[in-house]
Amino acid sequence: MKRILLSAAATALLLTPLACNFDQLLAEKVMVGTLLSTPDVDVSLYAMAGGDAGTLPDGGVPEEERLTIPGQTAAFVFFATRNGEQGTPEPVADATVRIEVQNGSPIALDNKGVGTYSATSAFGDETGVKYQNGATYNFVAVHDGNSHVGQVKDAPALERIAALHPAGGYVRHIANQGLTLTRPANGGKERTLGFVTVVPVDTNGEKGQPTYTNIPKEPLDFLQLVTSTGEWQRESLPIPGSAFPQKDSNYLVIFQTAQLGGPQSDNLFAGSTILVGTADLGLVHTIE
User: Fold this and answer.
1) Scanning 66, 79, 102, 146, which has its CA 20 to 30 A from the CA of 186?
2) Checking DSSP bridges between strand 212-213 and strand 171-174, what pairing results, if any?
3) How far is it, in rounded angstroms, from Cα 75 to Cα 36?
4) Contacting residues for 144 by C-beta, under 8 A, at least 6 apart
5) Taking Cα atoms as reference points, which of 24, 36, 32 lies closest to residue 254?
6) Rounded to whole angstroms, what are the CA distances from 247 to 200, 235, 254, 282?
7) Distance (Å, rounded) from C-alpha 17 to C-alpha 120?
8) 196-241: per-residue pLDDT in tens?
């Protein structure tokens, strides 16, 4: 399956010659890179209790009491050579990887092994990985003295989803029932990619494992984005009921808008996939 994905990426790019050059089609090194940011979320403890203070201990929680669920900006790179066995990319474990952004200092990514490199910082941390609307990001992997560069231009601004921001400050939703989000009108312009993740959150603001996501799960799965972006550019975003399995529970719905980029240097394979994006978030409280 991994070999099929790589072949599909190359075929699509052969049909769109302006997207790459011949050297990139033959390049041995391939990169998957993401820089995704989620903001801090300030929610009411009253909202997290479903707005029914009468059911809470000691007479309930004052509506003005707030809880901040911390956001983060996370960068990830998978770097490999395409000369692996049976056409499967072979991870490059000894590269030096960094992210460069205009008017900012380069950010070094930690080597996590098996060709993966990453760095995470708190949202708004001026010294760590930082997200800037409209910026151009370069993902640079240095190996054997050669720099391999992937690039994303014009990092997108936050795309606000109206359904996640009702007047009451949170969404009351029936457990195990699907929820559909609608992206705002785009004036006929091509949409950025849109990803949805649902994460349970407890009353202390601690996040659990996602109950749903349409983000590719493995580095090589991201190569599908080169040939099938339409799946992630739809106006309507259906979330299955299984994303909200428990009643009287809280779930953070994260809508990530991301710009798709690709190789900048000639020595990086044309099918390399680079994503940079930011997120809108909303709190869902489930009822029967």
Assistant:
1) 102
2) unpaired
3) 7
4) none
5) 36
6) 12, 28, 19, 17
7) 35
8) 999 999 988 899 999 999 998 887 788 777 667 788 999 999 999 9
134: left (phi over 0), alpha (psi -120 to 50) or beta: left
pLDDT beyond 80 at 179: yes
How many other CB atoms sit within 10 Å of the CB of residue 184? 10
Q: Which helix (H) or strand (E) holds 232?
A: none
- pTM for the predicted model, two decimal places: 0.84
Measured in residues, the chain has a length of 288
How does DSSP assign 172-220, residue by residue? EEETT--EEEEPPP-TTPPPPEEEEEEEEB-TT--B---SEE-S-SSGG
